[in-house]
Design brief:
Layout lengths: L1 E5 L4 E4 L8 E7 L9 E5 L3 E4 L7 E9 L5 E4 L3 E4 L10 E9 L9 H6 L4 H15 L3 E5 L4 H8 L3 E4 L9 E5 L3 E3 L9 E7 L2 E10 L5 E8 L6 H21 L5 E7 L12 H8 L2 E3 H4 L2 E3 L24 E6 L4 E8 L3 E2 L2 E2 L10 E7 L1
Parallel strand pairs: 9-10, 16-17, 19-21
Antiparallel strand pairs: 1-2, 2-5, 3-4, 3-6, 6-7, 6-8, 9-24, 10-12, 11-12, 13-15, 14-15, 15-16, 17-20, 18-20, 21-24, 22-23
Helix pairs in contact: 2-3, 4-5
Length: about 375
Amino acid sequence: MQAVGVTAISVTLTWPKYRGAKTYRVQRAANYAFTKGVRTVKAKRTRATVRGLRPGVEYCFKVRAYNRKGRHVATSARTCKPTAAISVPSRGATVSTLTYNICSKDCDSSKEAWWAGMKPWAQRRPVVTRTVLGSGADVIALQESSGWRTVAADLRPTYTAVPDFGHYQTSSLLFRTSRFDQVMVTETTPRAATIELGNGRRATWSELRDQRTGKRTIFVSAHLSPDKSAAANRRRKAETLSLMRQVDAANTNRSRVVYLGDFNSNKSRGRAQDTPARVMGGAGYLDAYDQARTLSRPNYNSGTKGELKPVKSYTWGDHVDKVWIRKGDGIGVLSWVNINPRRGAKYAGPVGSDHCPIRVVLRLS
């Protein structure tokens, strides 16, 4: 089962047809254990919208299938999803964003990538280029982009790249030249920088002016430390705090900010261990995945391990690749889509990276 649509008071769910099933009952609860606020919605088809929910509250769902005799024949895995806490503005400019850890030259030296059958960067580069160009994104955040200069050359007719000096830890930022201009400090100096986050990590930001509306937004591309250890968790907390402090200090125009990147933030780790989400949430930022009006492939983990078979995470989604927006900034989320090229039930080979490209369409009032 997966959530494919969200509003402030409802969640729309779909699930595969169960063999021998005639009717279904969708159960929702206010906790994972299904001991609080349990309600049931009947359904004849493999889709249902559960209404009457509270804004910004996380609910868990499961579907039970029944045969013609009314006998229970199957129960789905749990899916947990919050209702939207940020509404989509009724008017405003639509901006398509893309965050993509391309694992360029780094995956060439990764044993895990080699065992998964990933090709060298020279063979993956065209895949990444086609995927990025095909996304139609207006703003692109790339991570692990030591090979970014070649990608930037491929994309230059359409996009302008914010300089990031090509370091592995550095995250690149590109924007559609026909849509945005960089805000300038002087006639020759744009409001943009690559900043040090600690632990050898960097992020790149730029303040962009929408040519259609004249409004300004800072977009940030970041990559935080990986791994699941307690030490890595502390590093991510420090890096997230450093990121927000530096961007806030640089934001002298008080423009709204959209953060994109590989935050190695994952709900399945639990709130105590998911320090990026705790820090971002403390500053009023929410995961666009949880706010999106529509979702596509929401249960396909954004990490692939370099394999063609998708990693599926039914309960939380488990997306380490994020887009963060802040409540009160006049930004809503129209859609969240995993756009990794697919062939049938698997990803199309060769894969471009050990991460999936995530496209998030925003509406900025």
